[in-house]
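REQUEST FORM: STRUCTURE PREDICTION
Request ID: SP-0412
Submitted by: Lab K.M.
Chain count: 1
Length (residues): 250
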Amino acid sequence: MGLRTVVVEDERLARRKLLMLLSTEPGIDVVGDCGTAEEAVTLLRTERPDLVFLDIQLPGMDGFEVLHRAGLENVGHVVVVTAHDRYALKAFDVAAIDYLLKPYDRTRLRQTLARIQGRGTSDLHGRLLALAERLGAGSERLHRLVIREGERISFLDVGNVDWFESADNYVRIRVGSSEHLVRTTLQRLERRLDPARFIRIHRRIIVNMDRIREGRLGVGGDYEVVLQDGTILPVGRRFRDRLLLEHASL
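STATUS: Completed
RESULT:
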């Protein structure tokens, strides 16, 4: 019996071609295919395949989120299906994640299958995390954050963040009553956040402007902001003018 294989590809014609190519490859046993993220989560949980060809850009949910929801313990090898540029392919190589370039052809497929033989399935969590971070590093604006807590990888929409706080070589992320820690610097993070949504109010703090309820002078005469949930954050003197300019209602 060959590798039990699942194909997740939202483009119907592309999926049919990949299935046709796989059908003639020795050692491959296709046990299922689908075209939506929701179907993929169910299929991966049910079949627990040895190998999955996964389109990284699915409508409504990307491939990383599919794997997270399905559970990485339910998959063996992961081959990311992509039409990304050369920069992204370098990221795949560095993260030791296998990929198959579109448009599909037999030569590319066999090159991918050959690479699989040289890579194990160990530390899939870490390799997918490295890939997500490297792909994100090339984006102009940051839309999602990769959160790693133990062996769990999750994805957080940046718009849900209330505020960020520097913590040495880490950044503490505040989301309601929850808190996450990511290994980066506030300066690096600020460069990729949307300045129309987030503003630096202190050398250690960046805040989501939608969360600001009011600005005021504190007890000691220093300026501060009050968030919608009542949290009070200090405003550094050199950041006050920009805050008042961007948030005229304060």
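NOTES: The radius of gyration is 22 Å.
Reviewed by: T.R.
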